[in-house]
Amino acid sequence: MANEPSSPILAEGLVRRFGDLVAVDGVDLDVSAGEVFGFLGPNGAGKTTMVRMLCTLLSPTSGRAVVAGFDVALAPGEVRRRIGVALQDAAIDPLMTGWELVRLQASLHGLSKVETARRGGELLERVGLSAAGDRRVRTYSGGMRRRLDLALSLIHEPSVLFLDEPTTGLDPTSRVALWEEVRRLNDEGTTVFLTTQYLEEADELADRVAIIDQGEIVRSGTPSELKAAVGAPTLTLDLAEGHHEVGCEVLARFGDTRPSPHGVAIGLEGGAGQIASVIRALDDAGVEVVHVALDAPSLDDVFAEATGRRLEGSSESGGAAESPDELAAIDG
Length: 332
Fold this sequence. Notes:
The chain is of the alpha/beta class. It is built from twelve helices and 14 strands. The protein folds into two domains: 9-227, P-loop containing nucleotide triphosphate hydrolases (Rossmann fold, 3-Layer(aba) Sandwich); 232-296, Alpha-Beta Plaits (2-Layer Sandwich), CATH 3.30.70. Strand 12 and strand 13 form a beta hairpin.
């Protein structure tokens, strides 16, 4: 069943269970044509499970999803012909060359030899791999493999592109290069569904974001809307040893406590103008302050406000399978 063109990705009450584990719990999404949609959440939140259902790699337990105009459960083949997918665990044969993988992917999509040569050459050039096309993939760096995977996902000119944590583990230069290519694809009209645990990535690329936690959408909107809703900036202080309890009592007068990976943090209602008052109050109480920082609301603050904990957006850890049950289901 075809969907209206304005919604290349639509999910209604989508659920995925693995035994007793509910990995995705009644998710609704409506992604507009031509936008970059960021999907945020920590490992285990349900991001990868959601992507696998939208890409027809996993069947929904219940609910409905329509991608590129077709129901993922009723017409998975039609969906696959119209989407590009670059997963975090992409299987790229290290013994093949870049060009050999391009030709294999093109043949799977029915491209002629002439089309393969033209399209493959264009894509390898775009991702900066023209000179490495005849090298075996085992000689590629992590960033080169990610860029090759992106090129392979674009060989058939998909209207919808799924990128599952595409820059996890990449160095800053490779990450920025991939961001530039995503922007260019989007400028050309490709709808991009981007899952990430990097807050800066979502802020840089996404027109809208949704935050998933424990299988449920806890916030959604544009990055600016979500940050504005948090309100007060975050004041973070490192206090001397033994001064934490009294310091927290003093800080409670100036704003609500916020989660922080280190130090003590509050939402400072009065903004920068209140910092001097906070320091005076702490000094009057005999609390020694080691370090002070004031940060404007961020997507991390949005996540903390919604879930009560920080999103590990700066983690360099790779994306593991989301649960033993999920891994067994995928492998089985």
